[in-house]
Write a structure and sequence with these properties.
This protein has about 525 residues and is mainly alpha-helical. It has 32 helices and no strands.
Length: about 525
């Protein structure tokens, strides 16, 4: 029992002490003897905390002789045994002390601690040539003794030697309790001996309990045995339990061993269980590296499940390798599954390099599905520069699909330089779709501070549709430029549409400069 344990026990005993004093305070105040025994026990126990073993032993002995009916008598008896151990009494005597304590106080809070100490002492005695005490460990076979088994297990784990390992393995073989066996599997991991690895391997491959086999399989990876990969591959290929196969597949990924790539690839392609096949794809991702690129490509072409193909496609994107671009292009153009084609298009947008942009440009004429065409637009939107802008401009101007043209216009806002809405103005002037022209104006309005006022004025002169004229006026107001004031003043005074004239006044107010205020005054005077 180390100091950490002692301190923890101290906290527990003090808590129990305070609780008992609080609960039984009326009785204590009524009985002077009870007040005395609590005080006497507290004094003795303080010597335990101070590690004054000789004084503590004498004080506890005196307490036991004086207060045989005390509520603290079992605690005093337990700490007396512990003090004898610290005073290096003969181990046999200390063992007998704990054993007698358990017989006398079977319901004491300290029984489990006493049993744990008995097991530890029994193991030491066995190592010193007293094999009869080894029976203490070997006799722990019944499920009713699970707490003692646990105590023995923790003690053996701390020892960590080969004899302790043999005892741990014996404990596994002699119990049927799944909880206890699970704990043993985890403890075997801490033994750095081939025998420990061999035992966990045997459990993983042969134990009839699937839960224990899975725990053993998970433990093998952390034991760094030379044939862990071979064991996992064997289970992943042929184990009859799907859960075992899934654990093996996952562990193969965690090993990051390239030898697993062909196995995982084969499982992803041919495994009837779609969940296992997807697990193989995810395990490939954990292995990582360029070695898995051919594997993912093969899965995309050959896998029997579309969900597995999609999983492989997602992993391809995460590779962030330019070599993936031609493959994604091929998927986008030729894959029967529309969702996969769409995802391949989006994945190309994530690369944001010229090769990917040119791939998107080449994909567009090969597809008829509007949703896929929109996906191309949204993917191109992720790029910057004149090449991306030109692609979107061409879509907006040439497509016969109104919705696609609008999507291209709105995407242009993110691609164009903020000080150059020329393409949008051109789309506004030339598009055959009214909604696309409106979209161009809305987008110009968002960029209004940089919109060329002179060009907007020409648009206004050319436009016959009142609603569109009103929108142009609003855009001119958003420029907040004095250059727009004379144009807006003229519109406010002369336009045939009342709403357009009001919009011009609002635009002048929005500009708000001295020149704009002077224009508003002239408008007022003219009306007078």
């Amino acid at each position: 029992m180390n100091i950490k344990y002692l301190r923890a026990t101290a906290i527990r005993i003090v808590t129990v002490f305070l609780f008992s004093v609080a609960v039984f305070s009326p009785a204590l105040s009524a009985a002077t003897v009870q007040e005395e025994d609590a005080k006497a026990y507290k004094q003795a126990y303080s010597l335990i905390l101070e590690e004054k073993w000789e004084e503590a032993h004498k004080s506890l002995e005196k307490f036991i002789q004086s207060y045989r009916r005390s509520a603290w008598i079992d605690s005093a008896r337990f700490w007396q045994c512990y003090a004898r151990e610290k005073l290096e009494y003969a181990l046999e005597e200390v063992f007998d002390c704990y054993q007698n304590f358990i017989k006398a106080y079977p319901k004491s809070k300290w029984v489990n601690d006493a049993k744990s100490n008995m097991v530890r002492i029994a193991h030491r005695l066995a190592r010193e040539g007293k094999p009869e005490y080894e029976a203490i460990v070997k006799s722990l076979k019944t499920d009713e003794e699970i707490e003692i088994k646990m105590a023995a297990l923790y003690a053996l784990e701390d020892m960590g030697d080969k004899e302790a390992l043999e005892a741990v393995i014996s404990l596994y073989d002699s119990t049927t309790d799944t909880k206890f066996r699970t704990r043993i599997i985890y403890i075997l991991e801490d033994f750095d001996y081939p025998e420990a690895f061999a035992k966990v391997k045997d459990i993983a491959l042969n134990d009839p309990d699937p839960t224990l086999r899975r725990r053993a399989l998970e433990t093998l990876e952390d034991m760094d045995g030379k044939d862990v990969a071979e064991i996992l591959i064997k289970v992943a290929r042929s184990d009859p339990d799907p859960q075992m196969k899934k654990v093996a597949i996952s562990e193969l990924g965690d090993l990051e061993d390239v030898r697993a790539i062909p196995v995982l690839t084969d499982i992803a392609i041919n495994e009837p269980d779609v969940n296992l096949a997807k697990a193989a794809v995810y395990a490939l991702e954990d292995i990582g590296g360029r070695e898995m690129l051919p594997a993912l490509k093969r899965i995309l072409k050959e896998a029997r499940h579309s969900e597995v193909k999609k999983a492989a496609l997602y992993e391809l994107e995460d590779l962030d390798d330019p070599e993936v671009i031609p493959f994604l292009k091929d998927v986008a153009m030729n894959e029967p599954d529309l969702e996969m084609r769409k995802y391949a298009i989006y994945a190309l947008g994530e690369f944001e390099n010229r090769e990917a942009l040119m791939a998107l440009k080449e994909i567009l004429p090969t597809i008829d599905d509007v949703e896929l065409q929109k996906a191309v637009v949204y993917a191109v939107e992720d790029f910057e520069g004149p090449e991306a802008a030109k692609i979107l401009y061409d879509i907006a101007m040439s497509t016969t699909n109104e919705e696609l043209a609008k999507a291209a216009v709105y995407a242009l806002e993110d691609v164009l330089d903020e000080d150059d809405p020329t393409m949008l103005i051109d789309i506004y002037r030339k598009s055959k779709f009214l909604s696309v022209r409106k979209a161009a104006l809305y987008t110009i309005e968002d960029m209004a501070e940089e919109a060329p006022v002179g060009l907007l004025g020409k648009m206004l002169d050319e436009e016959k549709e009142p609603e569109m004229r009103r929108m142009i006026v609003q855009v001119m107001g958003d420029t907040e430029s004095d250059e727009a004031v004379p144009i807006l003043e003229k519109v406010a005074m002369e336009d045939k549409d009342r709403k357009v004239r009001i919009a011009a006044i609002d635009a002048l107010e929005n500009i708000g400069t001295a020149k704009a205020r002077a224009a508003l005054l002239r408008i007022i005077k003219k009306k007078d």
